[in-house]
Design brief:
422 residues, alpha/beta, Metallo-beta-lactamase, Chain A, seven-stranded mixed β-sheet, six-stranded mixed β-sheet, 15 strands, 19% helix
């Protein structure tokens, strides 16, 4: 650094040293818009209901569970994850029904809807981390090279965490003509990485943008944000309701369970398919954490367990288990929590079977049409370490999810939804 550089304010010099992957903080007109948001109060974005956004309990308790050998072996696949081999050839043919989705792993999904292509939370990087040498590494390769995917009409981002907003992926997509739909404040990151402001559609909750005849609505979620050393809560998180002339789809992003799913479904559903986060849950991220296996009401505030994910799907579909299909996402690609690697998929399969919801279970890169869903194939069993109780007894479905008429069907005390912000 030259002598002239030393005359710059310390804050400016420190910003110059931070990794590019940290992105940029909102400022100027963008920050003024954030301050005017009805979802921004006391200097931060607020959740729709109270939520703990930091781990509870002691680091010693967490470390004891994390390093326990018999549990650690279950947290990664025991053999290579099977990736669909003919994704590009399959995508070369148009969907017969007008709607096709391809789960690329974790929360990355390509949706072909009424002649347009929408790419949700694309993460093609090797690690979900600001650093190339540290952080959770992919457990399977991306099913197709990003450059071979072809034109995308709009890229949709749910929030700015590293497993949903990936610097090398965004930089590659910035060189195309695609439009980016993002929650309020997230545009600051994308502009710093080379996305022109004119290609951004930056939305607050319940705002809608139309791109190529497809409407994209940012809907509420129960989560948090942040990429740098300081989390200022100045970038919003969202789920997304996307509608074409003939079809409707929903992507949850990351969220804890809350009663707002029912409102989203009433306003934007029913959906042909819901893409629902069911992985990376932990009792350590709950206000009601216990050191034992938690009861249903003690799951996290910021991620859903499979039981809660199925309850969210039913809420979104007006309690009609026959409406649409559910695609579990946010599992399988990165090891981000203490639960066994295969548990989210196995548990989701049990929970959907219990209430008659149609679930789809594609391998990464396997396209499917919700109008003709394939039967569930528990492919994860062939590459996961079998749990001690055996597949037949693990994991349990805590509570039958029988719809809103049942008492507290997700095992949730809905009064928690009125708790103050944690």
């Amino acid at each position: 650094m030259t002598g002239a550089d030393h005359t710059l304010p310390l804050r400016t010099r420190l910003r110059a040293l931070r990794p590019a992957a940290f992105g940029a903080d909102p400022d100027g007109a963008r920050m003024e818009r954030i301050r005017r948001s009805p979802n921004f109060a006391d200097g931060v974005f607020q959740n729709p209901v109270g939520a703990r956004i930091r781990p509870s309990g002691s680091a010693l308790d967490f470390a004891r569970v994390y390093f326990r050998k018999e549990e650690r072996v279950l947290r990664a696949p025991a053999a290579p994850v099977p990736v669909h081999a003919t994704t590009l050839a399959d995508l070369a043919r148009p969907p017969a029904s007008g709607l096709r989705v391809t789960w690329m792993g974790h929360s990355s999904v390509l949706a072909e809807i009424d002649g347009r292509r929408v790419l949700f939370d694309p993460v093609w990087g090797e690690r979900c981390s600001p650093f190339a040498f540290a952080g959770p590494r992919r457990l399977h390769p991306a099913p197709v090279p990003l450059g071979a995917l072809g034109p995308v009409d709009v890229v949709v981002i749910s929030h700015d965490h590293y497993d949903h907003l990936d610097l090398p992926t965004i930089r590659a997509l910035a060189r195309t003509d695609t439009v980016f739909a993002v929650p309020l404040g997230v545009g600051a990151h994308l502009e710093s990485w080379g996305v022109a402001p004119g290609r951004l559609r930056e939305l607050d909750w319940n705002e809608t943008a139309t791109v190529a005849g497809i409407s994209l609505t940012a809907t509420p979620a129960r989560h948090f944000c942040g990429r740098g050393l300081r989390n200022q809560q100045h970038t919003l998180w969202a789920s997304w309701a996307v509608a074409g002339p003939e079809h409707r789809i929903y992507h949850s992003g990351d969220t804890g369970y809350f009663s707002g799913f029912r409102t989203i479904g009433a306003e934007h559903g029913p959906f042909d398919i819901t893409m629902i986060q069911i992985g990376a849950y932990s009792q350590y991220w709950s206000k009601d954490r216990t050191d034992s296996v938690p009861e249903p009401g003690a799951w996290p505030d910021i991620h859903m367990s499979p039981d809660e994910g199925v309850r969210a799907h039913l809420d979104l579909q007006g309690d009609d288990p026959a409406a649409g299909v559910m695609l579990p996402i946010h599992w399988g690609t990165f090891n981000l929590a203490l639960h066994p690697w295969a548990e989210p998929a196995e548990w989701s399969m049990r929970a959907t079977e219990a209430v008659g919801v149609t679930m789809v279970s594609p391998r990464p890169g396997q396209p499917l049409e919700p109008a003709d869903p394939p039967p569930v194939d528990p492919w994860w069993r062939s590459v996961a370490a079998e749990p001690a109780p055996g597949w037949g007894n693990w994991p349990p479905v805590h509570v039958p999810l029988t719809g809103a008429a049942a008492p507290d069907p997700a095992g949730l005390d809905r009064d928690r939804d009125r708790a103050p912000q944690a």
